[in-house]
Structure formats: structure tokens, C-alpha cells
Amino acid sequence: MLPGSRSCPTGDRACQNDRLQGARIAPMMRIGSVELDSPAFLAPMAGHCDLPFRLLCREQGGVGLASTDLLNSHSLLKETPRAMQLAATCEEDAPLCMQVYGSGQDPLPAAACWAVDHGADIIDINMGCPVDKVAKKNGGSMLLCDPRSTVVLAASIVDAVQRISDVPVTAKIRLGWDDQRIVGPSLARALENIGIAAITVHGRTTEQRFRGEVRLDGIAEVKAAVDSIPVIGNGDIRTAEDARRMVEVTGCDAVMVGRGALRRPWIFEQIRSRLVDGIDLPDPTFNEKLGIIERHLDLMLEHQDERMVLHRLRSAIAWYGKTMGHVKPLKEAVRTATTSVDIRSALRAWIDLPAAVPVSE
Predict the structure, then answer these.
(1) Which amino acids are annotated catalytic?
(2) CA–CA dist 278, 232 (Å, integer)
(3) Is 0.85 topped by the overall pTM?
(4) Please, which residues bridge with residue 101 across strands?
(5) Residue among 312, 309, 321 at smallest CA distance from 357
């Protein structure tokens, strides 16, 4: 068994095998030509969804689909070092979605074809990122402001990809730019009509960014607007119960987890078990969480240089720490470490030490 991987032990951590009430969905689903064996997907997240993190989540189980970081179309075609790092994949990293972003003035069709040639099982068009570096270049959620042009752009990408493969093209949207411009349902319907194979919808407007609660009724409206393609719900999924409620309220076909996975890379197996089998799985023990963090360290060392490893772990430990109780000394030890050896030593020093106070989120 790999370090950080989990079984379901007996005794004081016995799995809750009682069948639970609520939303249940089939274990298998299709997006175009791609068959997926879990309804729990890892979202594209800028600065987080590199190859080591995707592999870590896959090893914990339950990941039906994982996405790369956001990929700039110009950088992909130039094969810049940063773009190649973000698009890096391997045999174990499947099924894989590569998400491209840009506007009608950018070479998105060519970038999508590049992604097909370099291992993508699904191509996703970013139509929902609210951050300035994407939106201010007329990409991301700026595409929501001109739905007609956006549909034309999406059709050109679909046509380009279909000429060379049967790889499906999907789109990730928000409800709209603001409450006065809610375009999610009508845009989703138009995208389905030009060949988009699935829609992921984050249940907020661009103006909201990540503030306030996700609007499940908005996701439900997008689901009702399409005829037959899958709709994946996204936003505020921190636990398997959050996923169950989203499916129950919206009728969505799968869920996509973003920031919740940074805290709990094991959440996908919990979601799959809850939605498919009706069984709640417990969180890992404190020591198991330490093992998962160390496994993340190992994967980073395998695929990245020491400088990047230190940078990524210093950020990641803040997310992991949210589920581990009062572990400020551990977080400080990781943040101040000057080598990966120091990080490993800091993690191992906490083995068998109980978390001071369990956290409740």
C-alpha cells in the first residue's frame, strides 16, 4: 500500500455501513466518448492542480476526472517551460481534462488540438474564471458577457477537435457576470446545440467571485435548460454531505470539487461512496493525514525541483492544517523549512502526537 493511502479499518474507526437516505446516482457516466467511473471530479484551480496534486487525489480514490491548471493558449503553442509544467501528465494521470482559456482573438482551437495530441481525454473551455489576469484579457468569465460570440468561439474549438479525434469538448461557466446578466441556462442550451459535451457550472456570478453561498437553484436552472448532456455542479463542496445536497437539490449528474480538495484530497472517495453506495466514510486519522502530506511531498519531489516543492508545501500545509486541529507548530516548521528533508522530519516528528483539539468546519 502506498504511503498515505487508506484502508477502512475495523475497531474504533469502523466505517459507517448504515445505508443513508438521500441522493444516489449511478457510478458510471459518460462525457462524449469518455466513460468515467466516479461522479466526483477535481476542478481546475490556478496554482494548485499540478501533476503531483492530481496524482495524490487519484491515489486516495474516487476521482472520476481530474483537470489541469488553467492553460494559456499562446503559451501552450509556444511550449513555454511554465505551460509545459502545467500541462505535464503521465500514464497514471487519467482520465485527464486539459482546460484552455482565452478569447476569440486567441488561438484556442489550435491549443485544444495541441492538448489532444499531448494526452487530454477531455478538453474544457474556461468560461468562468473571475480573476483579473484571465478576465481582463477577455477570457474566463468575460466570455459570459457576450454569449453569442462565445458560442461561435466554442463551435470553432469543437470543429477543430472533431477533425482530428473523438475527444469531447466541455465548458465551465458561472451563472452570469452579475445578477442583471444571468446567462447560464441560455448559454448552456446554446453550447449543447453546437456540440459541447458537458457543462460544469459554478453556482455564483462573476461579481460574487467566491463570496456568499453557492446558488443551488441557479445550477438547477442550468440542468433544466439542457436536453441530454451532463451538468456538473461546482461550488462550496467541502464534504460528502455537501455533494449529496447539491445532487439532491439541483439534479446535477456529477460534482466538481475545488478548494475543498485542498483541505481533503481524500474527499473524492467519500463523495463517491456517499453518492453511489449510500455509505459515509470517515476522515483519515491524524497519523494517516501526516502520511498523505508526506506522500504529496514524495510526488512533488518526483516531478518538480526542490524550489517548487518548498513553495508548494508551504502553501499546502495551510490547507491541510484546517482539518488537523491545533497544529500551528507543525505549520510553522513546514513554512520555515529550507529543504524537503526538513519538511519530512517535521511531519514525522508529529506521528502519534494527538491533535490538540479536533476542528469542526
Answers:
(1) 129
(2) 20
(3) yes
(4) 72
(5) 321
Among 107, 108, 90, 91, CA closest to 99: 108
CA dihedral (314, 319, 320, 323) positive or negative: positive
Residues 6+ apart with CB under 8 A from 208: none
**Amino acid at position 97, single letter:** C
Q: Which three cell numbers stand for residue 192?
A: 449543447
Q: Cα–Cα distance between 273 and 239 in angstroms, integer?
A: 12
Q: Which residues of 80-97 are buried (b: 16+ CB within 10 A; e: fewer)?
A: eeebeebbbbeeebebbb
E strand or H helix that includes residue 67: strand 65-72
- Helices then strands (H, E): number in the chain? 15, 10
Q: Could you give the angle at the alpha carbon of 291 between the alpha carbons of 285 and 297, nearest 5°? A: 145
Query: Which value, in Å, is the radius of gyration of the alpha carbons in the chain?
Result: 20
DSSP 104: T
Residue of 114, 111, 137, 136 whose CA lies nearest to 125: 111
Distance of CA 330 to the CA centre of its chain: 27
Residues 246, 235: Cα–Cα separation, whole Å:
9
Q: What's the half-sphere exposure (Cβ side, CA atoms, 13 Å) at 29?
A: 24
Q: How many CB atoms within 10 Å of residue 272?
A: 24
Q: Which residues pair with 124 in a beta bridge?
A: 99, 170
pLDDT per residue of the chain (361 residues) written in tens, 0 to 9? 333 344 443 334 334 444 444 556 777 889 999 999 999 999 999 889 999 999 999 999 999 999 999 999 999 999 999 999 999 999 999 999 999 999 999 999 999 999 999 999 999 999 987 776 676 666 787 899 999 999 999 999 999 999 999 999 999 999 998 889 999 999 999 999 999 999 999 999 988 878 889 999 999 999 999 999 999 999 999 999 999 999 999 999 999 999 999 999 999 999 999 999 999 999 999 999 999 999 999 999 999 999 999 999 999 999 999 999 999 999 999 999 999 999 999 999 999 776 544 444 4
Q: How far is CA 261 from CA 35, 45, 52, 121, 357, in A?
A: 22, 10, 13, 21, 22
